[in-house]
Design goal:
This protein is mainly alpha-helical. It has 3 helices and no strands. The longest helix is centred in the middle third of the chain and has 21 residues. It is elongated. The protein starts with a helix and ends with a helix.
């Protein structure tokens, strides 16, 4: 059985395809990212000169925050 047929069988077994979306989890993630953004601004990692450029420190900070939230509270 290939991955495609497995996926199709799972959809047909349930009768419909449904996406599990937890609004509380999304809200906590958004608040955590806003707090992280404010902390990075106060620490000087994000400033006016480089706020629209890709910054690997910011990316890593966001990744760690979301990873920890998903580790503690999996969907």
């Amino acid at each position: 059985m290939t991955a495609d047929t497995f996926f199709i069988n799972q959809i047909s077994a349930k009768g419909s395809f449904s996406l599990h979306f937890d609004l509380a989890h999304a809200a906590v993630t958004i608040v955590a990212l806003i707090v992280t953004n404010l902390a990075l601004k106060s620490a000087g990692v994000i400033n006016e000169e480089n706020k629209h450029q890709l910054n690997w420190k910011v990316f890593l900070a966001y990744f760690v925050v979301v990873f920890i939230i998903n580790l503690v509270w999996p969907i």
